[in-house]
Write a structure and sequence with these properties.
With 141 residues, the chain is an alpha+beta fold. The chain has two domains: 66 residues, no CATH class; 59 residues, no CATH class. Helices cover 45% and strands 13% of the residues. The chain contains five helices and three strands. It has a three-stranded antiparallel beta sheet. A hairpin with a 4-residue loop joins β1 and β2. α2 packs across α3, α2 crosses α4 and α3 packs across α4. The chain is elongated. It starts with a strand and ends with a helix.
Length: 141
């Protein structure tokens, strides 16, 4: 079994396709690499096909939406517990409700995982998270 993996600009490695046979994986690699070379995926360093037997790759996180065109991506992003913790820590460090929302918006809007979402959706998410960080201040808004 084989799958297509992506290495991002920050050197994160993710699996972007299901495990499949060699021919299907090669066809998907070609499609994705053509998009990368056309400039549609600026956050991508390169794509590659690897075997499920390769221990350096088979434990990589699966992010299937990265292989989809932006119009076909889900209209949400799921954060892990660690990602939520880091985002809330960033907000709390900002010091107040408005600065927290701004800091978290900057963080999320610069992420490849959120790039396909409208800015207003990201803003709604960050304001909700900021109100979580500063509940007393949020009562006065």
């Amino acid at each position: 079994m084989h799958a297509v993996f992506v290495t991002l600009q920050d050197f994160d490695r993710l699996r972007v396709t299901a495990w499949t046979n060699w021919d299907v994986a090669q066809d998907e690699w070609t499609r994705l690499d053509d998009r990368r070379r056309a400039g549609e995926l600026p956050h991508v360093r390169f794509f590659e096909v690897r075997s499920s037997d390769d221990p350096n790759y088979n434990r990589s996180p699966f992010e299937p939406f990265l292989s989809l065109p932006p119009a076909e991506r889900p209209q949400w992003v799921t954060l892990t517990k660690g990602e939520r913790h880091d985002l809330l820590a960033l907000g709390r460090k900002a010091g107040n409700l408005e600065d927290a929302a701004s800091a978290m918006f900057s963080e999320l809007a610069s992420s490849y995982r959120w790039e396909h979402l409208p800015a207003v959706d990201i803003s709604d998410y960050t304001w909700a998270a900021a109100r979580f960080c500063f509940p007393r201040e949020a009562e006065t808004w």
